[in-house]
Amino acid sequence: KKKHGWSEGLYALGLRDIGIEIDPSACATRTAARHTTIRADVADYPTAPLRGNVSALIASPPCQTFSAAGLRAGNDDIDLCHQGLDALARGHDTRTALRAACTDPRSLLVVEPLRYALELRPDWIALEEVPAVAPLFAHIAGILRRLGYSAWTGVLNAADYGVPQTRRRAFLLASRTRTATPP
Predict the structure, then answer these.
(1) Would you say residue 47 lies in a domain?
(2) pTM
(3) Pairing state between β 168-175 and 150-157
(4) Residue 97 included in any domain
(5) How far apart are CA 86 and CA 89, in angstroms?
(6) Position 180 in a domain
(7) Over the chain, what is the mean pLDDT?
(8) CATH code, domain with 82
């Protein structure tokens, strides 16, 4: 089941997003909700068509490999994800080789937001994932700070923000124009 909360929030603010989604059911849901969607694998989609047209980057990489409710194969792959982040920061794309080495190839999707950020240089970035990804978000924040972004990372609980559900999530907020602080 895919979430589209980011898109609904943007829509409520009068903003437009373009989602990249591979799952046909999620694409149908997004289309029914009037959210512009590109059906593609986010890891294979080129950033060139988006250059100059993106002011923000919002991402919630798939959490199944890192979730406590899943097999947690992402825990085995976390070092490979850190390697992928470092390589992208140095201008080297090692994602294909690293994906092949992962216990679960979906684990490496957590590095995709950095690829998009490096290539598109949006004004602001918001990422959300299960708490196990917090160390990777901290790594991304360090890279973004070196590029001139203000960045904040932390774990928030939806119940603290009026949602009738205990849902802890790691977040990364970054901005080139403002100081990034927790909500």
Answers:
(1) no
(2) 0.91
(3) antiparallel
(4) yes
(5) 5
(6) no
(7) 90
(8) 3.40.50.150
Residue 181 has pLDDT above 80, yes or no: yes
Q: What is the pLDDT of residue 137?
A: 97
Angle, vertex CA 39, rays to CA 127 and CA 69, nearest 5: 50
Give the percent of the chain with pLDDT over 90: 66
Tokens of 102: 């992962």
User: Which residue range(s) make up the domain with 10?
Assistant: 1-40
Contact 181, 160 (CB under 8 A): no
Q: Are residues 59 and 135 in the same domain?
A: yes
Q: Which pLDDT does position 70 carry in this prediction?
A: 56
